[in-house]
Amino acid sequence: MLSTGTPPDWAWVDVAVPRPSGRLPGISMAGFRQRGPALVDIAMVAHPSVTLLVDLSEGEGLVYDTHGRHERGNVVIGLLPGDLRATGRGVGECLQIRLEPVAAAAVLGASTELSGTMVSLEDVWGRDAGRAEDRLRAAASWDERFTIAEEILGRRLGARPPVDSEVAYTWRRTLTSRGRVRVDGLADEVGWSRKRLWSRFRSQLGITPKRAARLVRFDHAAHLLAAGHAAASVATESGYVDQSHLYREVKAFAGLTPAAVAVAPWLAIDDVAWPASSPTRSPVTGGEHISDLR
Predict the structure, then answer these.
(1) What ranges make up the beta strands (E) of the chain?
(2) pTM (2 decimals)?
(3) GO molecular function terms here (predicted)?
(4) What is the pLDDT of residues 184-214, one digit of tens each?
(5) H helices present in 177-267, as ranges
(6) Is the pLDDT of residue 218 over 90?
């Protein structure tokens, strides 16, 4: 989930999403094309996915900065990356891929090491990163790019042993409950002790079950705020004790107030770029390419 410091003019941005058929489990993607030269200054907010960004721009492209580290080009952003910004200017294209932690563990094989940081895709995939970029650049359309990306990601999904089924189940229950589930109850459901679930979940996904639940709950609340719901009702709907509890959690994850999250520019089109993951909108069933957003 991205919010902008200098908002892009969405009238100059085309957004493309894959057709519903053929989507890989735990993986979603969207393509962005900025048709006019403009300054981009993007601040990243915590989201319950590992993010893979493939910069398909001509020229210098975007520069990413977090914790004093700079990267250019294709990057992988782990869970909870902290204060991260992307800056650039000009006409550009970018493929953004969101990997739920279970999928990230298989596709990247480094989810634990990635948590809380950002690395270049080459550091994770080696020469395969350059080959993937070349194939995506040569594609004639976004539909072709999505097909190529699904083939690459699908091959990697099948090449590594999956995480423990108990860990995968715990993540899915956390996501579907929107973070309103107790770790002790999940341990009972999978037949593990709380200590074992905590250890295996953290070692395989790079985050503790409790932290994962807080992150998922925050994400749901952020979308409700962006949809125009009042903070008090969002606190109740999202399972916070009260509005002050919501305020503290939003500040902890986003460094912003609930009012600032509510007007985060990127969230204004979040249900367009990520229709299947929006808690307030139904999935897109037609018109999968959306252009000239206004």
Answers:
(1) 2-6, 13-16, 27-34, 39-44, 50-55, 63-66, 69-72, 75-77, 84-89, 92-99, 118-120, 289-290
(2) 0.84
(3) DNA-binding transcription factor activity; sequence-specific DNA binding
(4) 999 999 999 999 999 999 999 999 999 999 9
(5) 183-190, 194-205, 209-226, 231-238, 243-254, 258-262
(6) yes
